[in-house]
Here is the input.
Amino acid sequence: MNDGQLLRYSRHILLDDIGIDGQERLLASHALVIGAGGLGSSAVLYLASAGVGRITVLDHDDVDATNLQRQIAHTLDRIGRPKAESVREAVRAINPDVQLVPRVQRADTALLDELVPQAGVVLDCCDNFETRQAVNAACVRHARPLVSGAAIRFDGQLSVFDVRTPAQPCYACVFPPTMAFEETRCAVLGVFAPMVGIIGTLQAAEALKLLCGAGTPAAGRLLMLDGRSMEWSEVRVPRDPACPVCGPHRH
Here is the structure.
């Protein structure tokens, strides 16, 4: 690190769990963020401010006026621009040392198989069940930790899935691909603006812990927040030995 970086990251360096070694690991690390909406906005801004050296952001959508209520990486003058490129401008304004790579594409299997192996951690900040399953399957195939977040109405949830540890579940262990799932979207049901910020920031925290080796990841735990009462609940989630994605009989 140069003198400017030592000053910029001094509050991390003061933490015994991070220190100079941990901060250097962050500077040398690569995070893949799927989705540059509400969750992704907060997650990417904190990853960048904390000094993650390279961040790839995958999102095919454009900034819309209705996004600005909660997607804090975007601004009024970037309406109509691709969200991934808008996030790159936001990151440049905070930390120009970070290399942010925007990919204005859909997260299909072929693209995930290209991008996931390059990353040290993957953050699922998308808003649909099919993409979540595809991202999880790619993380299982390439043995990459996945930080998953979701928010709708006043509710949020967070978990870490890391099948590098044999006893830990993948996303499909908890939410099987075959389950009947009614898609819920912000455009129909609404979302409390700070909820995506709370969950997205927690995703950044879990990703940073994984990248620099600080603390204990929230793997094997599904954390759920009721924003009306601001109460957390937690469910311990074991690995499913019959899981079609991470089990021994997966295809």
